Amino acid sequence: MSRKVIVTGGAGVIGQAICCRLVEGGFAPVAADLKDAVDALDLTDPALAGATSVVMDVTDRASVEQAVAAAVASGETLRGVVNCAGILRDSFLGELDEAKLDLMFQVNIAGMARVTDVCAPLLTEGSAIVNVGSLTGHFGRFRGASVYGATKAGIAAYTRYTAEELAARGIRVNNVAPGVIRAPMSPSMARVSGGEEVSASYAMLKRIGEPHEVAEAVEFLLSDRASFITAQTLLVDGGVVAW
Fold first, then answer.
1. CATH number of the domain at 3-236, please?
2. How far are the Cα atoms of 96, 139, 183 from residue 90, in angstroms, in the given order?
3. What are the angstrom distances between the C-alpha of 165 and each of 130, 160, 218, 239?
4. Fewest Cβ atoms closer than 10 Å to its Cβ: which of 7, 22, 54, 223?
5. Residue 174 forms beta bridges with which residues?
6. Cβ-count burial of 203 within 10 angstroms (0-12 exposed, 13-18 middle, 19+ buried)?
7. Which residue in 86, 102, 98 sits closest to 135, CA to CA?
8. Number of neighbouring beta carbons within 10 Å of residue 201
9. By C-alpha distance, which of 36, 29, 16 is closest to 183?
10. How far apart, in Å, are the Cα atoms of 164 and each of 5, 102, 167, 174, 176?
11. At what angle do helices 13-24 and 211-222 cross, to 10 degrees?
12. Which are the catalytic amino acids?
């Protein structure tokens, strides 16, 4: 029986890396993302063998419900959820844009809550949820990332509370908080981080991370190898927050 896992933001750089690693781990990932991103996803890539996709807008409850229903339409059991959908917009004090503010909360916090709320009743004992946060929820040196960091700190809190709520059903919930990961850097990310060279200087390992390094942590926490781990935040940041 395939172990189906819904991965929101699954067509993005980190999302695709997670889907590829889940395939290696024996899971059947469903990349859930906006239509344009899903249309651009190459499911013929051998690394994504067995993966599927579904259109989902995490800011829209009806879209989430329809996408989840489509993902499990074949009657397969939902084995896990990865809440990877996220968006960063800079938010310097004195320049706060209401649209940016609303979008970050709607995607990063409310979107995660919507997906979890729809998926949780479908999960069975032994399933797991992994939320993807950020070191910005634990670190204050990226000027202009205050609202983004607040949403990511909220993910850590949401993880702890839902882990307690789902523990009685044998479902684990954890949070992976990446540092700066190698991917095309958006203008907002470049402004708040200072770019790859500056970001690398903050890490003990003196480099930025690779998408597959985040994916390894996510797959581990979904797997039975992490069967006694719940309500935790795992920083995959090269040691930034530790010093």
1. 3.40.50.720
2. 8, 15, 17
3. 15, 9, 21, 31
4. 223
5. 130
6. buried
7. 86
8. 11
9. 16
10. 21, 28, 5, 11, 17
11. 50
12. 148
- Helix, strand, coil shares of the chain as percentages rounded to 5? 45, 20, 35
* Cα dihedral sign, 134-138-144-150: positive
Cβ 214 vs Cβ 176: under 8 Å = yes
Distance between CA atoms of 211 and 93, rounded to whole angstroms? 31
How far is the C-alpha of 164 from the C-alpha of 82, rounded, in Å?
18
173 beta partners: 129
Looking from the CA of 117 toward its CB, the CA atoms found within 13 Å total 13
3-class DSSP state of 4: strand
Angle subtended by helix axes 112-119 and 61-71, to nearest 10? 40
186: Cβ contacts below 8 Å, ≥ 6 apart: 88
Supply the DSSP symbol for 209. Answer: B
Q: Token digits for 126?
A: 């032994």
pLDDT per residue, tens digit, the chain (243 aa), is: 579 999 999 999 999 999 999 999 999 999 999 999 999 999 999 999 999 999 999 999 999 999 999 999 878 899 999 999 999 999 999 998 999 999 999 999 999 999 999 999 999 999 999 999 999 999 999 999 999 999 999 999 999 999 999 999 999 999 999 999 999 888 999 999 999 999 999 999 999 999 999 999 999 999 999 999 999 999 999 999 998
Token pair for 134: 């950020």
Whose tokens are 């979107």? That residue is 111
